[in-house]
């Protein structure tokens, strides 16, 4: 297989985030007879998914380490040494570096995936991204909402954005009564409580503070309800100080698919999103969800069908929607079954094939 096309996936970090997990999911379904895929990342302390990528047969390069400001030079060395045919970037800062460093007759083709709306980026990042964006040979977006935020003036004339809905990779994940009991034991939850859960880094954009406010309101009418926060992040101490009774902080976990059966309702209180893997995992697990109407979430969840959509930054609306599901087991079962059915359209293998078709298009040019 010495004539395989050599591809570098470029990321800022490989911590337990949705965009990073997509790399692992896609690596498991890549056409390795045609593509030799490697991954490079910048932040050495965000390495939780390195082992998963290596188990998928992917060679991983860390560009960071002291002094951290040298990582663009290390990327340049890697590009010269490995002579990739294509570089596929997944976060804007390393993407800018790749665009500036890829020049000359043997320069690799450049593909970039947008995982977030442009408004989320800090101003210097947004400017640098915009000024170099036309160096991309193709752009992929994880949702139509994300694609809609990319300024048309920054794309090449006639170039369109490829929207690819990814999906979770839950093959072999446990389910059923035994899985539910095991998950609840792991999380220290009572067997008979209605449990609401969320998965995500503890950051301002995920707005777990708003979720805690909503949960406190919910507990006034449903005092036996529990809330599980799966994830870690810079706001953990602040959120712990805010949390009242019934809240479990589960930390960053590698076994999220095994914990989902222990939940009755899934929720995301995000102020910004691309298309969260966590929501698609929850729907695949048959959970009804209450999520905010942001990013690509309304593209995969219909209000009142697989769960409820609520405005971002509105704890009262979030509490009301969670309350409807908390007090009605039959409603939870109906919406959960509809979520599982809808999730059959989530196809990580198909998403990777779509990405590889983009590769074929740009490599033919």
Order of helices and strands: EHEHEHEHEHEHEHEHEHEHEHEHEHHH
Any idea what the CATH superfamily of the largest domain is called?
Glycogen Phosphorylase B
Cα shape: elongated
| Count of strand segments | 13
Keywords: Glycosyltransferase, Transferase
Organism: Kitasatospora atroaurantiaca
Domain Glycosyltransferase subfamily 4-like N-terminal: 17-170
InterPro entries: Glyco_trans_1 (IPR001296), Glyco_trans_4-like_N (IPR028098)
Structural description of this entry:
- With 365 residues, this protein is of the alpha/beta class.
- It has 2 domains: 5-167 and 347-364, Rossmann fold; 177-345, Glycogen Phosphorylase B (Rossmann fold, 3-Layer(aba) Sandwich), CATH 3.40.50.
- It has helices at 18-28, 50-55, 71-82, 92-101, 123-132, 144-147, 177-187, 208-221, 236-242, 256-259, 277-284, 297-300, 315-326, 329-342, 348-364, and strands at residues 5-11, 35-41, 59-62, 86-89, 109-114, 138-141, 161-163, 195-199, 226-230, 247-251, 265-268, 289-292, 307-310.
- The strands form 2 sheets. It has a 7-stranded parallel sheet with strand order 3-2-1-4-5-6-7, sandwiched between helices. Strands 10-9-8-11-12-13 form a 6-stranded parallel sheet, sandwiched between helices.
- The longest helix is centred in the C-terminal third of the chain and has 17 residues, at 348-364.
- InterPro entries: Glyco_trans_1, Glyco_trans_4-like_N.
- GO terms for molecular function: glycosyltransferase activity.
- Pfam families: Glyco_transf_4 (PF13439), Glycos_transf_1 (PF00534).
- Residues 17-170 form the Glycosyltransferase subfamily 4-like N-terminal domain.
């Amino acid at each position: 297989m010495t004539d395989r096309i050599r591809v570098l996936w470029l990321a800022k970090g490989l911590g337990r985030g949705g965009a990073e997990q997509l790399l692992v999911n896609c690596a498991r379904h890549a056409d390795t007879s045609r593509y030799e895929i490697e991954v490079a990342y910048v932040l050495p302390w965000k390495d939780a998914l390195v082992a998963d990528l290596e188990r998928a047969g992917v060679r991983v390069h860390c560009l960071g380490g002291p002094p951290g400001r040298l990582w663009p030079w290390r990327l340049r060395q890697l590009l010269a040494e490995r002579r990739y045919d294509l570089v596929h970037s997944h976060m804007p800062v390393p993407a800018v570096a790749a665009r500036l460093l890829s020049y000359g007759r043997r320069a690799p083709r450049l593909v970039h995936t947008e995982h977030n709306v442009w408004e989320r980026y800090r101003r210097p990042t947004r400017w640098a991204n915009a000024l170099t964006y036309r160096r991309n040979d193709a752009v992929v977006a994880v949702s139509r909402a994300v694609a809609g935020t990319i300024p048309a003036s920054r794309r090449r004339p006639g170039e369109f954005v490829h929207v690819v809905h990814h999906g979770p990779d839950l093959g072999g994940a446990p389910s059923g009564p035994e899985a539910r009991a095991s998950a609840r034991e792991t999380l220290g939850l009572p067997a008979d409580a209605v449990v609401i859960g969320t998965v995500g880094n503890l950051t301002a954009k995920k707005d777990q503070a708003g979720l805690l406010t909503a949960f406190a309101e919910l507990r006034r009418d449903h005092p036996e309800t529990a809330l599980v926060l799966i994830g870690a992040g810079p706001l953990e101490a602040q959120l712990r100080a805010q949390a009242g009774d019934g809240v479990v902080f589960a930390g960053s976990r590698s076994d999220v698919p095994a914990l989902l059966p222990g939940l009755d309702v899934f929720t995301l209180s995000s102020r910004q999103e691309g298309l969260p893997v966590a929501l698609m995992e929850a729907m695949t697990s048959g959970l009804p969800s209450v999520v905010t109407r942001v990013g690509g979430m309304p593209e995969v969840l219909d209000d009142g069908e697989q769960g409820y959509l609520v405005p971002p930054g509105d704890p009262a609306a979030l509490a009301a929607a969670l309350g409807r599901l908390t007090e009605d087991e039959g409603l939870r079962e109906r919406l959960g079954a509809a979520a599982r059915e809808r999730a059959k359209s989530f196809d990580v293998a198909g998403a990777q094939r779509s990405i590889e078709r983009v590769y074929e298009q740009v490599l033919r040019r």
